[in-house]
Amino acid sequence: xxxxxxxxxxxxxxxxxxxxxxxxxxxxxxxxxxxxxxxxxxxxxxxxxxxxxxxxxxxxxxxxxxxxxxxxxxxxxxxxxxxxxxxxxxxxxxxxxxxxxxxxxxxxxxxxxxxxxxxxxxxxxxxxxxxxxxxxxxxxxxxxxxxxxxxxxxxxxxxxxxxxxxxxxxxxxxxxxxxxxxxxxx
Length: 186
Description:
The protein has helices at residues 2-32, 39-47, 61-70, 82-93, 121-125; strands at residues 107-111, 131-132, 140-141, 161-165. By secondary structure, the chain is mainly alpha-helical. The strands form two sheets. Strands 1-4 form a two-stranded antiparallel ribbon.
């Protein structure tokens, strides 16, 4: 019995020593070979809505941020981000903001529930999980969470999802900023 415990003790000590050596080696390698990312790309990536919808022509928000930092693409391609995102990107890059590539105002997806067959294709496609429903049940969209990326439109077999303009209410209405030389006096 004592020989068995001695053998197990040796195994535990040797495995513990190997684990300690591997941990120290990995920690050293992480410090030695650390690659610093571009801070400009990180700032731009934080501004983008992170829906990874591909409306800009890039496979996600991070590649779009990298292309913006390199200056190889336009700043007005993020449709879910809208005008506010374009203005923030322009401020970081030090360029003049341009009009959005497609500016029809804020929109939100809407499911015509009488046409919905409950296939859940839209739920799987939504990058922000704003579609609620179950298999073979009618679905609905949580409008406050929808980023208008339009990723849910294509997979829908019955075309029951439409993009509707967001109506202004007393709770979200804002004054338009004045334009011209007097605008800077405020």
